[in-house]
């Protein structure tokens, strides 16, 4: 009779964090093999099982005993805290089996049961420190040469990984954590946030947030996991936060005023980002909170050449915004400020005006100069250029463009007015109305991008009837079109819903339609689908569009 090896990771140790499969595997086992502390942690789950306990550093003997018992036909549970495949017993069990010539098809069965690793359980108690690329490094040189561990710490430090240090210190191993700190201080600010978590989710749980420079002032042992932030990790309300990316895209918003950069984080880049106007105050509060905590953490620090260089760097960066400016200490090692310094990417739409479609050479030159080598300029079919540019001062950029007479607008899921050129502005009777519509709703956040086409005569040269909302000036009054399907194989023009709307009514009517869609539309719901769903907008009834039917052909499309 063949036995079975159940290699179990039971997570941090608390019952509620042990998976259902791990509990089942423990229950069905004949033998439990584990480190003394681990056996104690799952004692309440044990019933009839034979227990084999060993001390620390006896991992190989545990694996050998487990294989032996399984080969004798028993179902053996080899237990590890955290995840059995992360510094656990899974690898050693397989190594012992391989030495014995084991093959899965004919040998004992092996099932590895995953658990919550320490990097995850500890991170949950600290905030969100591993939101970006992270690595785990064990400082135990029991099975790995210290020279190799040093290289890994150095590589992770230089590559700006968030680092989780396992097994940082024991009664006999005391120097490794000191040397790890010294290596990382070559690449990171002394103020880099560090989280120390001991016995996560156990009775003696201890959580401490400190800095890379001061981390050794606290008790660190074998049950401690040390999580060291990267260059963007910051502190907020006692939590370690690592942003999801090194860049954030900002655009403009029109909720409260025409141009207000940094009011909205672009959802395509950060789907969970703050996008409401009122959150600008939260971002300002977060920045102030971060600066206050950084000051508190550094005010008692001993002055050294390294700290002097770091403080000088911080001063320079504060003057120039949040972009990273590297400097060096006396050992010529790059030092970077660790307090939330993501690069800002400003993204906005530029046009020469509502009716004006002609840019001057000076305007084009200014846009090119602002874009420089790192930015980019995208031509669009919507009478606009899209400018994306790294900048630490978006207000300065927008002011330069406005001073040159350019019209700026946000991009993304917002309302956008697209007017014709009114025959080089010769047919200008309706221009005041499109300008007022633009003033009221252009840039308003909507469930999906919304285009409002406006043509100054019945020729509709600029295709207003092919937009989500079409407005056509004809014989001194306005015709209104709603619900074009602007993309796809079944694209169609908007439905004509009204003719002869009086001039004094058109602006208010369009504003009500757009704001109704902004308030009542479902997330990502295009305007034509919204019109179909609600069936009536401002008294205008939706009419079903004929479905295009195509014959199936033998070949081709």
Question: What is the secondary structure topology, with strand pairs?
Answer:
Elements (H helix, E strand, L loop, with lengths): L3 E6 L10 H9 L2 E5 H6 L8 E5 L4 H13 L3 E6 L9 H10 L9 E5 L4 H9 E2 L5 E5 L7 H13 L3 E5 L8 H10 L8 E6 L7 E6 L12 E5 L5 E3 L2 E3 L5 E5 L12 E2 L13 H20 L6 H16 L6 E2 L5 E2 L7 E9 L9 H11 L4 E4 L5 E6 L3 H10 L3 E3 L5 E5 L2 H4 L5 H11 L8 E6 L13 E6 L2 E6 L12 E7 L1 H18 L6 H8 L1 E2 L2 E2 L16
Parallel strand pairs: 1-4, 1-5, 2-3, 2-4, 6-13, 7-8, 14-18, 22-23, 23-24
Antiparallel strand pairs: 8-11, 9-10, 9-11, 12-13, 14-15, 16-17, 18-20, 18-21, 19-20, 24-25, 25-26, 27-28
How would you describe this protein?
By secondary structure, this protein is α/β, with parallel strands linked by helices. 30% of the residues lie in helices and 23% in strands. The protein has 15 helices and 28 strands. Strands 14, 15, 18, 19, 20 and 21 form a 6-stranded mixed sheet that branches. A hairpin with a 7-residue loop joins strand 9 and strand 10. Helix 6 packs parallel to helix 7 and helix 13 runs parallel beside helix 14. The longest helix has 20 residues. The two termini are 61 Å apart.
């Amino acid at each position: 009779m063949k036995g079975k090896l159940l290699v179990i990771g039971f997570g941090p140790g608390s019952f509620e964090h042990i998976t259902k499969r791990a509990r089942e595997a423990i229950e069905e086992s004949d033998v439990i093999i584990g480190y003394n502390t681990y056996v104690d942690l799952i004692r309440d789950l044990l019933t009839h099982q034979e227990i084999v306990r060993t001390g620390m550093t006896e991992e190989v003997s545990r694996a050998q005993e487990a294989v032996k018992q399984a080969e004798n036909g028993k179902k053996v549970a080899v237990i590890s805290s955290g995840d059995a495949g992360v510094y656990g017993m899974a690898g050693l069990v397989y190594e012992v089996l391989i030495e014995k010539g084991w093959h899965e098809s004919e040998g004992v069965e092996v099932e590895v049961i995953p658990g919550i690793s320490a990097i995850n359980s500890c991170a949950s108690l600290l905030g969100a420190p591993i939101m970006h690329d992270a690595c785990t490094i064990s400082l135990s040189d029991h099975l790995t040469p210290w020279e190799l561990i040093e290289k890994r710490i150095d590589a992770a430090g230089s590559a700006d990984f968030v680092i989780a240090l396992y097994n940082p210190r024991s009664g006999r191993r005391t120097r490794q954590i000191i040397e790890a700190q010294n290596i990382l201080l070559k690449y990171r600010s002394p103020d880099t946030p560090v989280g120390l978590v001991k016995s996560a989710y156990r009775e003696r749980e201890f959580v401490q947030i400190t800095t890379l420079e001061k981390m050794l002032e606290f008790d660190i042992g074998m049950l401690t996991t040390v999580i060291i932030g990267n260059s963007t990790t910051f502190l907020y309300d006692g939590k370690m936060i690592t942003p999801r990316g090194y860049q954030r895209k900002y655009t403009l918003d029109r909720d409260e005023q025409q141009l207000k950069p940094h009011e909205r984080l672009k959802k395509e880049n950060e789907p969970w980002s703050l996008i409401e106007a009122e959150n600008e105050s939260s971002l300002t509060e977060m920045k102030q909170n971060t600066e206050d905590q950084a000051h508190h953490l550094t005010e008692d620090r001993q002055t050294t050449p390294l700290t002097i260089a770091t403080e000088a760097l911080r001063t320079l960066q504060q003057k120039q915004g949040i972009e990273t400016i590297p400097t060096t200490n006396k050992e010529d090692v790059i030092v970077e400020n660790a307090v939330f310094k993501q690069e800002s990417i400003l993204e906005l739409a530029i046009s020469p005006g509502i009716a004006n479609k002609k840019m001057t050479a000076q305007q084009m030159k200014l846009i090119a100069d602002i874009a420089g080598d790192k930015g980019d300029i995208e031509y669009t079919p919507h009478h606009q250029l899209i400018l994306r540019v790294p900048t630490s001062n978006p207000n300065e950029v927008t002011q330069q463009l406005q001073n040159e007479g350019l019209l700026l607008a946000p991009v993304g899921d917002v309302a956008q007015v697209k007017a014709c050129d009114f025959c080089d502005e010769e047919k200008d009777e309706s221009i005041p109305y499109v300008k007022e519509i633009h003033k009221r709703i252009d840039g308003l956040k909507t469930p999906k991008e919304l285009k409002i086409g406006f043509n100054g005569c019945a020729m509709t040269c600029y295709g207003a009837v092919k937009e989500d909302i079409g407005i056509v000036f004809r014989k001194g009054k306005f015709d209104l079109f709603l619900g074009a399907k602007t993309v796809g194989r079944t694209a169609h023009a908007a439905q004509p819903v009204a003719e002869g709307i009086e001039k004094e009514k058109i602006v208010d009517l369009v504003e009500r339609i757009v704001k109704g869609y902004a308030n009542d539309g479902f997330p990502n719901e295009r305007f034509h689908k919204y019109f179909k769903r609600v069936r009536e907008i401002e008294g205008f009834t939706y009419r079903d569009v004929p479905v295009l039917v195509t014959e199936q052909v033998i070949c081709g499309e």
